[in-house]
Amino acid sequence: MTGEHRDTVNRRRMLYGGAAAALTGTGIAAIASGAWDAPAADPAPAGHPGFVDVVADFGAKGDGKTDDSDAFAAAYAYAESRAGAGTGRTVIDVPPGVFRVTKPGAFMNADKPDHQVNGLRFRGAGLRISEIVFAPDNPADAYLCRNNDMWQNIAFEGLRFTSGTPGASFFYSYSTGGAANYRFSDCEWMGEWEYGVALDGSNTNSEMRWEACRVGGAYRKAFLYSGLSLNSKNLEQQDQFLNYWFTDMNVTYEWGNFLEFPYGGSVTCRAGSYIVTGRRPTPHPDYGFESAFFRFPRASHFDGAQRFHAEDIRFELRDPSVVVIDCAWNRGTVHFNDCDDTANAFKDFSGGMRAHRYTLTGNGPLVRYDSCQLVGAHQYRTAAGSTPPVCVRYDMCRLASHPQASFLALDSGRSAQFAKFVDCIPGA
User: CB 3.0-4.6 Å disulfide test: which of 180, 307, 322, 368 passes with 266?
Assistant: First the structure.
């Protein structure tokens, strides 16, 4: 380590290296529970502003070989120790380097639901500059971050997360109202994961946003899976996933699902490029070889939100096993505006694609495509015993593969009276 950062590290160790040491080992357990209800006392020397560095203050190496689990665990414990009166007060800096972490929960292990708190920031040096490689010995139920109904308003900035053990997971968040408001900006995920972010709980896990992030790698289940049901077994309470925003994204991953919401939700994806580069190496028991960007598999919901909006997105469908959306909602709204999935419309398989799939009931959902360019045909299944109203509309769209009369793929014997086409340009 040379140059300015080395000098900064040396000065920081001299100023408050002792405070870091006090929070390692048994010092972490010495944080008194009563401190949560009173103004927090900063364990660092007077004048320290609440910025810590995992290298300078906690001894992480960032060389890609050393196990830096203990350094990250100590950094999180320090942040937790400073939280008081419902407010967090710490920024954890991750400087340039490759940081190998083997212990689940080392990056964040929030397990005090009785002491809910707001405000924690993890700040890297930039995408592909600060990298965390999560390599647990056993990937089963191994999460790099856990939040058990404790933290709200958490920010992750300028970090790359790589699964060094296929089947590990990035983040498990359980909430009955205490875990919410996450923001990821300029972050990237690589490697083979079981889950990216897995949400569980009730009244729960709301107001989350991803901005200018890259989702790479592969996902055995999904990058964002809402409704894991490990701890919350009450389906009526579980059905409350609200407000997820994805803006200016580069979603270019190998296989798996991007968003899967078994319990409904309110989701907006705005601007970016969405590509699945390959196909699953082995068939999944639920999905076969298919990968889907947006999978909403359940019809019945307990008055939870069922709202999805995609805008200004270019989808590149490289394989017939790729699905843009598979939606079984029994009501709600789905809206695609100014989207294009025709990049490979010239390929032989494109005309036979059914990349947009819906199951319609007597209550919808309401499905609308505005100013979109669309490949293949769109599949509409009909729920047993239902007669869909006029609930599907295509407005000023280009149908790249088929004329309007054959653009809808329907169940046998069903008519297309539920759909309207307004000023659309048909394909050949």
Answer: 307
